[in-house]
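Batch job 17 of 40 flagged for manual review because the log was empty.
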Amino acid sequence: MMKVKYQILIQWSDEDNCFLVGFPDFPGQRWRTHGDTYEEAFANGTEALESLILAYEATGEPLPEPTVYNAA
C-alpha cells in the first residue's frame, strides 16, 4: 500500500443504494468507485486511489497537491 495523503470521500447514496467513493483533490469524475458496505467502499477506494496515482505517474502528469487540514 502506498503512503498517500489524499482525501477519500465516502458517502451513502440512496439513489445507488451503496456507498460512493470520490477523491476531491483529483479533477474530473466526481465518484470513482463504490461499495455495498463502508468497509468495502474504503477498500475499493484505496485500490482506486493507488491505480489513479500510478496512471498519473505512467503518463508523466503531475499529481495534484493534496488538501491537508491541520487539527487545531
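Reviewer: the log was empty due to a logging misconfiguration, but the result itself is present. The longest strand covers residues 9-13. Unflagging and moving on to job 18.
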